[in-house]
Recover the amino acids of this structure.
């Protein structure tokens, strides 16, 4: 391809979708989720990207990032990504600003793959043909019957690992975990405290829950407490993997977490860490450290990039985001045998926005 294909237009919209019931984890509760969607046009094609963020991310995109992206070569994604990150320096290259960058970066990769008429996984080069997933929900706001029904429902459709929230009421966690284990049989059981515990408290809880064969303990303490994560990792049973990384916005963050020996499994979130570009970099960092890599939330967005990474282990099939992605997009992969697969006939991410259907959620 010899001609330069310039990006002609960028548009951004924010939508808020109510949850289908009260939801909570170990530290917060919520009743809606906002998705910010970016559309780019170049070479007669349209690329779509998105992030789950506050609606103000759309202002960062429209006011700060759009002038950078318009007129750029659609093939030059690393250069555009770097320029966007430089542009947000003075407002902070993390949080809302990096979520904005991430949404645009995802749209750039979707656009490029569509220009080449290839699924994004094929453009990147596939390491695998399918992505292993675990069902994720089990909110602390759920009753025990709700918890059991949701987790067992995933197991019944072939998903072999499920994750539940803990930490809101630590004294209730053993009964909730026992109920989960009874519902899912021999499936793998993961727990996520969202930073709700202190380090020694987390160690005691892990020991108490050992009888229920917990294989994954996510954010037992806040993820910035690298010393605490390492201390827990050194004192829990060898079968329990300590997991964190979802709040990483930059490659140095992930490097520090790995250097600290804080985790057994590193998480990355392409809707936060700089899009597909940043997600791939963190995955290669895991490969160098010989640690498994997992995607946080947004299963439809992570699918293609995950298939390109030798270090990739498992993806979070998060209830809220899976629900929203099926609501908002045609082309979303449906779990089969506990895995997601791409559609070889659809270029890019394979997603088409259902604009008429979702207009009622527009902010």
């Amino acid at each position: 391809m010899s001609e330069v294909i310039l990006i002609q237009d960028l548009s951004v919209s924010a939508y808020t979708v109510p949850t289908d019931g009260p939801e909570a984890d170990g530290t917060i509760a919520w009743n809606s989720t906002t998705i910010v969607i970016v559309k780019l046009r170049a070479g007669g094609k349209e690329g779509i990207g998105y992030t789950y963020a506050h609606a103000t991310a759309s202002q960062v995109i429209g006011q700060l990032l759009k002038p950078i992206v318009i007129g750029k070569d659609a093939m030059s994604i690393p250069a555009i990504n770097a320029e966007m990150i430089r542009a947000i320096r003075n407002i902070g290259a993390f949080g809302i600003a990096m979520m904005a960058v991430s949404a645009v970066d995802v749209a750039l990769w979707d656009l490029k793959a569509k220009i080449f008429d290839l699924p994004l996984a094929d453009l990147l080069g596939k390491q695998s043909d399918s992505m292993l997933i675990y069902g994720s929900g089990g909110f602390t706001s759920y009753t025990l019957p709700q918890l059991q029904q949701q987790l067992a429902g995933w197991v019944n459709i072939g998903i072999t690992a499920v994750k539940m929230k803990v930490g809101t009421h630590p004294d209730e966690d053993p009964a909730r975990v026992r109920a989960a284990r009874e519902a899912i049989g021999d499936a793998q059981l993961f727990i996520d405290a969202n930073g709700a515990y202190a380090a020694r408290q987390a160690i005691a809880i892990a020991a108490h829950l050992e009888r229920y064969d917990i294989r994954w303990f996510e954010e037992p303490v806040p993820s910035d407490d690298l010393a605490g994560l390492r201390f827990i990792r050194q004192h829990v049973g060898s079968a329990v993997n300590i997991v964190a990384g979802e709040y990483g916005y930059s490659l140095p963050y992930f490097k520090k977490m790995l250097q600290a020996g804080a985790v057994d499994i590193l998480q990355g979130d392409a809707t936060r860490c700089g899009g597909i570009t940043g997600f791939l970099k963190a995955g290669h960092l895991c490969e160098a450290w010989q640690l498994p890599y997992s995607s946080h939330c947004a299963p439809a967005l992570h699918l293609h990039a995950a298939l390109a990474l030798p270090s990739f282990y498992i993806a979070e099939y998060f209830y809220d985001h899976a629900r929203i992605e099926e609501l908002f997009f045609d082309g979303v992969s449906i779990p089969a045998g506990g895995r997601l697969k791409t559609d070889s006939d659809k270029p890019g991410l394979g997603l088409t926005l259902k604009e008429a259907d979702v207009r009622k959620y527009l902010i």
The chain has a mean pLDDT of 97. The radius of gyration is 20 Å.
